[in-house]
């Protein structure tokens, strides 16, 4: 039997999307494309398609802890990616899990709304993420609507949201693309006052799973040892390419093509 060097392991704490566009499938595909091994622990089950979310159920915290413990006890976790949490109990669960992984970078994608607009948790979940999880993160990756929820600034600019949220986290990537601008502006903020702006061409249509793709790719790049600003640039470039090559398998949003058509495991 051939034996190869182990790929970096990324523990993914995310929901399951049966349409395959977002959630854990997005995490797995994006991490495979980075040369990483995804260790997916399910936090929630959803009833959704490429149009919107119809319902969801948050798993019992004991089950999520058991999944994470099985991974942590067996595999060398190099990074953690958070997706849908959906409840205060799940926020507490992640805090407990991260206490078992000191020094491991955490990428938080604060999934508060589905691409079709449906809520994925009560309003207080956003507050709990801000107060309890952002301080544990290496970087959080909200889009502008999510940043406004987290910062409690309904009409706030990216700069205004960042100013408030950097009191809670070290680095913040606020992604654009939710207005009608011709170019998409993604802004990386740091608590030390530094800032990087990344601009890309706006693509037509809307996409299901773009945020999951970006955050999991970023976690993979950090697991590979890439420096933060470079990892953000790599993740944004890869995500843009998956959107450029996206397909429309259903009646709703486009799904990013995260793996080449001739991909072989």
TrEMBL record:
Class of enzymatic activity (EC top level): transferase
Gene3D superfamilies: 3.40.1190.20
Keyword Metal-binding belongs to the record: no
Pfam family, one: Phos_pyr_kin
Record key words, sorted: Kinase, Transferase
A GO MF term: hydroxymethylpyrimidine kinase activity
Residue ranges constituting the Pyridoxamine kinase/Phosphomethylpyrimidine kinase domain according to the UniProt record: 17-253
Entry GO terms, CC: cytosol
InterPro entries: HMP/HMP-P_kinase_dom, PM/HMP-P_kinase-1, Ribokinase-like
EC number: 2.7.1.49
One BP annotation, GO: thiamine biosynthetic process
Pathway(s) where this gene product acts: Cofactor biosynthesis; thiamine diphosphate biosynthesis
Domain of life of the native organism: Bacteria
Claim: Transferase is one of the keywords in the record: yes
Transmembrane stretches, start-end: none
Protein name: hydroxymethylpyrimidine kinase
């Amino acid at each position: 039997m051939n034996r190869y060097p182990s790929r970096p392991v990324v523990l993914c704490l995310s929901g399951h999307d049966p349409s395959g566009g977002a959630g854990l499938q997005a995490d797995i595909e994006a991490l495979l494309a980075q040369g990483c091994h995804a260790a997916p622990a399910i936090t929630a089950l959803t009833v959704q398609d490429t149009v919107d979310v119809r319902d969801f159920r948050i798993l019992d915290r004991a089950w999520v802890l058991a999944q994470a413990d099985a991974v942590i006890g067996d595999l060398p976790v190099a990074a953690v990616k958070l997706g849908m949490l959906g409840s205060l109990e799940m926020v507490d669960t992640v805090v407990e899990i991260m206490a078992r992984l000191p020094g491991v970078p955490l990428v938080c994608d604060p999934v508060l709304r589905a691409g079709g607009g449906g809520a994925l948790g009560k309003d207080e979940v956003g507050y709990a993420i801000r107060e309890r999880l952002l301080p544990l993160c290496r970087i959080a990756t909200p889009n502008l609507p999510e940043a406004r929820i987290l910062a409690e600034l309904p009409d706030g600019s990216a700069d205004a949201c960042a100013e408030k949220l950097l009191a809670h986290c070290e680095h913040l990537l606020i992604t654009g693309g939710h207005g009608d601008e011709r170019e998409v502006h993604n802004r990386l903020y740091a608590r030390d006052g530094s800032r990087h702006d990344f601009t890309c061409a706006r693509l037509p249509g809307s996409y299901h799973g773009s945020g999951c793709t970006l955050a999991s790719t970023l976690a993979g790049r950090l697991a590979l040892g890439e420096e933060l600003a470079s990892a953000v640039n790599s993740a944004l470039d890869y995500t843009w390419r998956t959107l450029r090559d996206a397909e429309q398998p259903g009646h709703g949003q486009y799904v990013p093509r995260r793996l080449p058509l001739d991909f072989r495991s």
